Amino acid sequence: MDVLSILIDWFPYLLSGVTVTIGLVIAALGIGIILGLPMAIGQVYGSRPVRSLIGVYVWFFRGLPILVLLFLFWFGIFPGIGLGHLPAFIVGAVVLGLRGAAYQSQIFRGGIQSVGEGQMIAARSLGMSRLTAIRSVILPQAMRIALPGWSNEYPNILTDSAVCYAIGVAELLTLASRIVAQTNVMMPIYLATAGIFIILNYGGLKILHGLERRVEIPGFGTGAV
Amino acid sequence: MNNNDCVLRVEDIHKSFGGKEVLRGITFDVRRGETKVFIGPSGTGKSTLLRCINQLTLPDRGRVWLDGEEVTNSGARINYFRQKIGMVFQNFYLFDHLTAVRNVELALLKVRGMGKAEAREKALIELRQVGMEDWADHYPAELSGGQAQRVSIARALAMDPDVILFDEPTSALDPELTREVLEVMKRLAREGMTMLVVTHEMGFACSVANEVLFMENGVVAEQGAPDLLLRDPRFTRMKDFIGRLDDRPGD
């Protein structure tokens, strides 16, 4: 059998890994935003204990190699808290998400801190509570400022998701290596895998840049012409 | 002065920043419909005084009353008092992500709990008051400084405040834009709005102020009707200060 027909035969199988990879990325981005945004708010407006706690979290998840984190959770923490039966996909998504939250919190924090102090002062002068001011005045501006940086998390998490290979999640790289093991054809398979990653990367960024343009308003441009 | 007439009472306000005493005991009453103008060299605590009134800056000592209710030490009720005490800032501080009309209606929706249609209607009325209704759908980045300041006045007016604090409202504007903002403020004063204005605009002070307070080194050094302070030979310090203003080279 020649290489091309092997590639064609196995391509649908490889593509089934795309769903899993995209699932990992969406779950990780979702967890990242759900945890990262409150963490950013806490880091800017929280009390000292809250700020230190978040600081420790960020320090921990940014300080360890992703593979080490993955093994810690897969072999140690999840079994240790009685969740050893969870599928590898869930563990992978959670680890990518927890790590993403650490990075994303810093992106959002930068956004919040870039909003001029006058915005909070004006909001409070109208009788808004701090919480209302954060929600209605600070965050809508902070998110617009943070969006380009946040978009950049997509390719990071997409490429990071391949480490889930190490715990056997059936994502792209895992399936690719299974095909290699079956067929003894190596480079064409990995090249096809690389091609799929590049397409996913390009498509996702396209969508995110579209989103950036949709929420763009005068005074909050990305500076792109 | 009878008590019903007194809308705002400021009593013995003190404030220090890092050991430097910026306000050293300021006391005054404001009658309903009155315009008081604060004049004085930079760094004499005029802006700090305004911020102490609505507690954006907490005074070290002294008390503030609005309509007989104590504003200082009012805890969470401060958000209620702030609705009643409007504020206009030197740098406008419009909400940059919202159009003019949404700037004006935001607090109506989020603080007063007004319905959408009602808030929009009121916001448009206030924009008309300041001649900005044609710019309702423009973002702050698309407005001139004078236009932005007029929108910020509309934003303060929308809360139906008992008094509006103006913190150097024209200091960031060129003379042309200054004039358009002062026109709006003069009209508000004539229509009976109670206003406290920190400004260097002597023309404005003379034409609309019921009283001028000349502040120096954290105290009110001279106080009275603008005519009096300018003409009566017993008052010298404000005249000296204004003289120095006129001497500024290139102004």
CATH topology call of chain B: Rossmann fold
Task: Tell me the name of the CATH homologous superfamily of chain B.
Answer: P-loop containing nucleotide triphosphate hydrolases
| pLDDT < 50 runs, ≥5 residues of chain B | none
What is the makeup of the main sheet of chain A?
A: none
Task: Report low-confidence residues of chain A grouped into runs of 5 or more.
Answer: none
Percent helix of chain B, as a range, is 25-40%
SSE series of chain B = EEEHEEHEHHHEHEHEEHH
User: Per the principal axes of the C-alpha atoms, what is the gross shape of chain B?
Assistant: globular
Rg of Cα set of chain B: 18 Å
Number of strands of chain B: 10
Secondary structure category of chain B = alpha/beta
Please give the order of strands in the largest beta sheet of chain B: 6-7-8-3-9-10
Query: How many strand segments of chain A?
Result: 0
Q: Estimate what percentage of residues of chain B fall within beta strands.
A: 15-25%
The amount of beta strand of chain A, in percent, is: under 5%
The total of helices of chain B stands at 9
| Approximate shape of chain A | flat
Most extensive chain-chain interface? A-B, 22 and 30 residues
Could you explain how this protein is built, in words?
The complex is a heterodimer of chains A (225) and B (251). Chain A is mostly helical and 225 residues long. Chain A has a domain at 19-170: MetI-like fold (Orthogonal Bundle), CATH 1.10.3720. Chain A is built from 9 helices and no strands. The model of chain A has no long low-confidence stretch (mean pLDDT 93). With 251 residues, chain B is of the alpha/beta class. Chain B has one domain (3-246): Rossmann fold (3-Layer(aba) Sandwich). Helix content of chain B is 37%, strand content 25%. Chain B has helices spanning 46-53, 78-84, 100-110, 116-129, 145-157, 175-190, 202-208, 226-231, 237-246, and strands at 6-17, 20-31, 35-39, 61-66, 69-70, 85-88, 163-167, 195-198, 211-216, 219-224. In chain B, the strands form 2 sheets. A 6-stranded mixed β-sheet of chain B has the order 6-7-8-3-9-10, sandwiched between helices. A 4-stranded antiparallel β-sheet of chain B has the order 2-1-4-5, covered by helices on one side. In chain B, a hairpin with a 2-residue loop joins strand 9 (211-216) and strand 10. Chain B is globular and about 55 Å long. The N and C termini of chain B lie far apart (41 Å). Classes of the chains: A mainly alpha (225), B alpha/beta (251). The interface between A and B is medium-sized, with 22 and 30 residues.
